[in-house]
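Journal club prep — side note

Before the paper discussion, L.F. wants everyone to see what a predicted structure for a comparable chain looks like in token form. Sequence:
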Amino acid sequence: MKKVLLVLIVMATLASCGRTLRGSGEVTGVRSVAFNEPAPYGMVLVKRGAFEMGPADTDSLWGIQAETKGVSFDAFWMDQTEVTNAKYRQFLHWVRDSIIRERLADPAYGGNELFKITDDRYGDPVTPYLDWSRPIPWRRATEEEQMAIESVNYTHPVTGEKSLDGRQMYYKYEWYDYTAAALRKHRLNPYERERNTDLTINPNEVVMISKDTAYIDDQGRIVNETITRPLSSEWDFLHTRIVNIYPDETSWVNDFNNAYNEPYMRMYFSHQGYDDYPVVGVSWEQATAFCVWRTEQYKQSINIPEGMAIEPFRLPTEGEWEYAARAGKNENKFPWSNEDTQTDNGCFLGNFKPGEGNYTEDGHLIPAKVGSYAANEFGLYDMAGNVAEWTSTNYLESGPSQMSDMNPDLRYDAAQEDPYVMKRKVVRGGSWKDVAQFVRSDMRTFEYQNETRSYIGFRCARTQVGFSKGRR
């Protein structure tokens, strides 16, 4: 009997290896209605797999100690390229238009309860009448409405140049901390917090939690703060943040002393000639806000059953980023399969600083258009150089050794009053200003989450829901 059972187990194991078994629906034989999300636009599926995370070689010159960790990842989507200026401007313009819509409903700006504002093909500001019994006619904006539209712009008092007023571009968003809410110590029922039956449960125990909240004070200033209070309900795990999302264009000047980078400061983000270049001057906080906004736009673009949960867009974890950059191969120090930075005919494989004082040898002085170089084996572009990229992971020197070997990550949402050193986030990939050593896929560095740099951008990731067969 034992032999028969063993044979059946082995046969079942073999049958399930590499393909899906039949009859995997409901126990009654009636399968539920399947919902398959479409592939996210502009993303590549990185299938699940495992590799040795971290530098494999010791390098005394650069202070690199060989310390690898075997880790495994579930399948996830990743942006094929870094987020571009054009894509980020969609976010910015959505916030701008939201501000205008609110002001158009304000009596100070005419009092029309409009929720859509657009421009006609000739560039004149126009607004629709809300009469749903017939097609919406268009008309020129009234003086008050024009005031609302113009209120988001700024005219320089000296030069007379007119631009979007970045100081007004605030985005308010909320997120629910599923991980904190799942911890047993945070159970609302005190008798569920401890499973050791030898211990006596105190039903009156006060459990303290930290919650991020944001508001506008009486002086009109944005306030983000972390409050600590007794646990009372599920709402204690809902956090709120208000972030100014306009990129720091001055980073081009502040990052480089005694350099004429004024044209990039004035034009790199706003000029259409740079549409397909990676957005820079964006902090970790701003990049995170973009991911939240992108999730909301995605929800509206697909037909999701009511009440159905959805995986959000997010920044990739440090482990995901390295796995994707190295195409899941332990031997890859770069996104490509060898240690050379040029092809046999002398073409560079990425945008970095090839020599001392020579940025242009690879064909570019500053960031290049995304996708200017060949993709790696996973179909991802610019994973070495161009711009360094934010990850979701909190930076500690010993970070990888503290992480799990399954979907490794180290996350900490720093409170406003936390020491600044606790607000460091891992940055990966190196940039256009770095030498080849620092664009290696196994090199890690950091930046502070509220800092903005002319050489740091980002791309989004998103966990795939469901089965992903084998490795890529």
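L.F.'s comment for the group: The longest helix spans residues 85-104. Keep this in mind when we get to the figures.
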